[in-house]
Amino acid sequence: MKLILKWLLSAVALLCVAYLYSGVEIRSFGAALIAALLIGLCNAIVRPVLVVLTLPVTILTLGLFIFVINALMFWAASGIAGSGFVVHGFWAALIGSLLYSVISLVIESLTGRLLLGK
């Protein structure tokens, strides 16, 4: 049940990103669900491999290269998703992934408080 709730809230976070930033477009809630699933899969499967492979660059940049990896995962998900989820270039992916991370953090914090009753 928690996994489905997290998936739905991730889709809502993507819709918020598309609303706040014009570099990211989402055509429908269904497209947001698919995009959230793809972002989650990319982050679970591809991102750890990229983090290990780029560890020297990440160390040299004091961890800032992780932002580039997050943007690439965001952009890759839009490429896989098709026309329902569109990211207009790398810089849009970077800004979109930052917004997505912040909004997801806020949503998860609020839902954690609601579920725990605090």
Question: Could you give a quick summary of the protein structure above?
Answer:
The chain has 118 residues and is mainly α. It has helices at residues 2-20, 29-53, 55-60, 65-81, 90-116; strands spanning 24-26, 85-87.
The count of β-strands is 2
**Structural domain tally:** 1
> What is the helix content?
over 70%
Order of helices and strands: HEHHHEH
What do the pLDDT scores average to?
Answer: 91
Low-confidence stretches: none
What is the number of helical segments per DSSP (H or I, 4+ residues)? 5
Kindly report the spatial arrangement of strands forming the biggest sheet: 1-2
Distance between the termini: 20 Å
Strand content: 5-15%
Structural class: mainly alpha
Biggest sheet, in brief?
2 strands, antiparallel
Tell me the radius of gyration.
15 Å
Categorize the overall geometry.
Answer: globular
SSE layout and pairing:
Blueprint: H1 2-20, E1 24-26, H2 29-53, H3 55-60, H4 65-81, E2 85-87, H5 90-116
Helix pairs in contact: 1-2, 1-5, 2-4, 4-5
Task: Describe the protein in words.
There is one protein chain. The protein has 118 residues and is mainly α. It has one domain (2-116). The protein has 5 helices and 2 strands; from the N terminus they run H-E-H-H-H-E-H. It has helices at residues 2-20, 29-53, 55-60, 65-81, 90-116, and strands at residues 24-26, 85-87. A two-stranded antiparallel sheet has the order 1-2. Helix 4 packs across helix 5 (90-116). The model has no long low-confidence stretch (mean pLDDT 91).
